[in-house]
Specification:
Layout lengths: L12 E12 L2 E12 L3 E5 L6 H8 L7 E6 L2 E2 L4 H7 E4 L11 H11 L4 H14 L15 H13 L5 E5 L7 H16 L3 E6 L2 H7 L2 E6 L2 E7 H9 L1 E7 L5 H11 L8 E3 L4 E6 L2 H13 L4 E7 L3 H9 L22
Parallel strand pairs: 3-8, 3-9, 6-7, 7-8
Antiparallel strand pairs: 1-2, 1-4, 4-5, 9-10, 11-13, 11-14, 12-13
Helix pairs in contact: 3-4, 4-5, 8-11
The chain binds adenosine-5'-triphosphate and magnesium ion.
The site of magnesium ion (MG) has 4 residues, from α1.
């Protein structure tokens, strides 16, 4: 697996969005969105269904006109320089857009030619990308015979043909089986390692953790949180202090001591005998010091202390009030048919 530096130092912005607004009737699909994506990074845009993710990607791809707001992508103005912009971006839309009648290879070759690649180069890129996405064996079959997962991979390959400097991936792995999901992730990492910038929308927290350095959470067309993965976790969910007593039989007594002490702003503590741990949700360093001090003053011995950040799922739930999609739920439905898988 290719490793990427998720936080390269202070590059320029490849994407800058300011005050983006797009209304559909009463619906505020985008309601004043600001977004910065640093060059050479993967930026995750998270949000529940209907948050405005696809609308944002469509505006940034010049597919729809916003009502107001500005956006610069790879140095081009999305509103006034759409032609130049289209030459340097790649898009994998949320819904696959391959030509059903053409074979996988023909789909890629055609797009390569449309992007002005020479015949030789278009052929080389098509072969290379089919190989990377495990589609070589199915290369000559019409796309209409492909499973959902295969179409998705073909779509991703198509968006990468022209080696775009900025790539938009709108929920790229929804409906993919775990193996294919990993292939897509590896390919994204590889593109970023080669210098591309990726704007990724996703409802999968694992995907965001795997790929994105910075995140922007949107809901009802508005940015409701942004920052690095760990910064968001720390900001939103607080931490859990995990204490391992020297004497495991004292776990319950320790929990009672903390709960009875009524320390300022502390919600309580919970003994987890199976792990031999006492979990105490804390919101500040002062609470951490107070809990440890209290246990020491009461004569409890401590072997180990750690703090644990909330998962990104917990963060998402805390700020949007909705559970993120469960990656396991829609896996397999698009499993690759045996006869054409490699
Ligand atoms: N062409 C359209 N006409 C009318 N309403 C639209 C249109 N496109 C999007 N919307 C509305 O705008 C809002 C944002 O939609 P959008 O597709 O951008 O959300 P999303 O974050 O991509 O959701 P999902 O996770 O389901 O893909 C929704 O309320 C949607 O119903
Ligand atoms: Mg969408």
């Amino acid at each position: 697996m290719t490793r990427i530096d998720k936080n390269p130092s202070n590059g320029a912005n490849a994407v800058e969005v300011r005050g983006m607004v797009k209304h559909y009737g009463e619906t505020k699909a985008l309601d004043g969105v600001d977004l910065d994506v640093r060059e050479g990074t993967v930026h995750g845009v998270l949000g529940p269904n209907g948050a405005g993710k696809t609308t944002l990607v469509r505006v940034l791809s010049t597919l729809i006109q916003p009502d107001s707001g500005t956006a610069m992508v790879a140095g081009y103005n999305v509103l006034t320089q759409p032609r130049q912009l289209r030459r340097v971006i790649g898009l994998t839309g949320q819904y696959a857009s391959v030509d059903e009648k053409l074979s996988g290879w023909e789909n890629l070759y055609m797009i390569g030619r449309l992007l002005d690649l020479s015949r030789k180069e278009a052929r080389r890129r098509s072969d290379e990308l089919l190989e990377r996405f495990s589609l070589t064996e199915a290369a000559k079959k019409a796309a209409m015979t492909y499973s959902g997962g295969m179409r998705r991979r073909l779509d991703l390959a198509a968006s990468m043909i022209g080696q775009p400097s900025v790539l938009y991936l709108d929920e790229p792995t929804t409906g993919l089986d775990p193996r294919t999901r990993n292939e897509v992730w590896d390919e994204v990492k590889r593109m970023v390692a080669e210098g591309a910038t990726v704007l990724l929308t996703t409802q999968y927290m694992e995907e965001a953790e795997q790929l994105a350095g910075e995140l922007t959470v949107i809901d009802k067309g508005k940015v409701i949180a942004n920052g690095g993965v760990n910064a968001l976790k720390a900001k939103v969910g607080g931490r859990t202090l995990q204490i391992q007593p020297s004497d495991p039989s004292q776990l319950t007594a320790m929990a009672i001591a903390i709960n009875d002490a009524g320390l300022d702003g502390l919600a309580g503590s919970q003994a987890v005998p199976d792990d031999g741990l006492l979990n105490v949700p804390i919101l500040s360093d002062e609470q951490l010091t107070a809990v440890v001090g209290l246990l020491g003053a009461r004569g409890f011995g401590i072997t180990n202390i750690g703090t644990h950040l909330p998962s990104l799922d917990e963060v998402f739930l805390a700020i949007t009030g909705e559970k993120p999609a469960d990656a396991a739920e829609d896996i397999v439905s698009d499993a690759i048919p045996q006869e054409v898988s490699v």
